[in-house]
Every structure is written in structure tokens, then in C-alpha cells.
Amino acid sequence: MRGPALRQRVVRQSRTRRVWSLVGAVGVGAFVLCASLAALVLAAGPVTVSSTSNSKLGEQITVDAHGHTLYALRPESVRHLLCKSSECLRFWPPLTVRSSNSTLKAGSGVHGRLSILRRGHGIFQVTLGGLPLYRYSGDHAKGDANGEGIHSFGGTWHVLRAASSVSPMAPAPSTPGAPSPSPGYGY
């Protein structure tokens, strides 16, 4: 086998390898996506949202059943979700339950209505006072609040206060300082 016949055979084999490589890559990607979504949904059972004192923030804050701080993205609401991309959900995993019939419990000090929001792909997210609840992947210990004030994914992330009205932590008031001298540039 020489010349054009050999060349055609090599080209066919190369195409076949590329097709099988593509099929394999798509299969692995689909498996990873399904496994990630299943882990996200199955990781959460019945949910209790509690409160705890956070010395760093000087406030009573909301936490999940494991003591991890809960966040809300402003100006997100149940009618206008901003955290939808896989990248956002990787950094800010939603507090989820297995189904829309799951039991929700507000622990001591938590005020506001707990509800369940149906997101895409069969994910059911817990909300408090109409705000979707998230954890932050940068929090590693109970009570960490490393996500406070982060600007990303179309808004600002805030720790939820456990107060009579559900609201994110208010930024610390700024104190006016002495006026700074003008650099003298007229731009």
C-alpha cells in the first residue's frame, strides 16, 4: 500500500481518533457536570438556619447547620438572580435542600421567612426574607466571614445579620478626614 491509498488510510485513522477524542471529552464533561450538580443537591438535607455572634463583625449573623456564615448578593432577589454561572456557584455555593418539600427551620435569633427557590437543573435554594442564601468557598472555619464586602458577579456580597428584619451587614460608616491637598493637576 503506497501513495494515495496509504494517505487516505492515515487521514481516516486520524479523523477517527479525533472523533473518539471529542466523544470522550464530551462524555467526561457531562459526567463531571452531573456529578457536581448531584453533589450540590445531595449535600443538603433538612436545613436549619441559626444565628451566632461574630466578634470580627461585632454582630449576630446567620449561619447554616454547620456554623458556616451565610451571605446574600446585593442587588440579587428571587426574581432577579445574578449568581447563575458555574464560576459564581463554585465560589458561592447556594444553601440547598433536596426538594421543594424539604423542612426548613429558623433557629434562635433568626427572624424572617425561610422559603425555597427552585433554580434550574433541579436545584432548590433556601431563601431568607426573599434573599437567596449562599456560603463562601473562602470561609474554612465556623464563623469565618471572609466574603464580606466582595464585589463580584454583578453585585456586592454581604453577611446576613440575624436581626428583626433580614438585611445584609451595613458597611461601616466612613468618618470624614482632613481634606487632602490637591495634586495640582488639572485633568
Features:
2 domains; 10 strands; three-stranded mixed sheet; disordered C terminus; 24% helix; alpha+beta
Write the layout of secondary structure elements.
Layout: H1 4-42, E1 47-54, E2 59-63, E3 71-74, H2 86-91, E4 96-97, E5 104-106, E6 114-118, E7 124-128, E8 131-132, E9 151-152, E10 155-159
Parallel strand pairs: 1-5
Antiparallel strand pairs: 1-2, 3-10, 4-7, 6-7, 7-8, 9-10
General description of the model:
By secondary structure, this protein is an alpha+beta fold. The chain folds into 2 domains: 1-42; 46-159, no CATH class. The protein contains 2 helices and 10 strands, in the order αβββαβββββββ. The strands form 3 sheets. Strands 4, 6, 7 and 8 form a 4-stranded antiparallel β-sheet that branches. It is elongated. The chain starts with a helix and ends in a 28-residue tail after the last strand. The model is unreliable at 41-45 and 172-187 (pLDDT under 50).
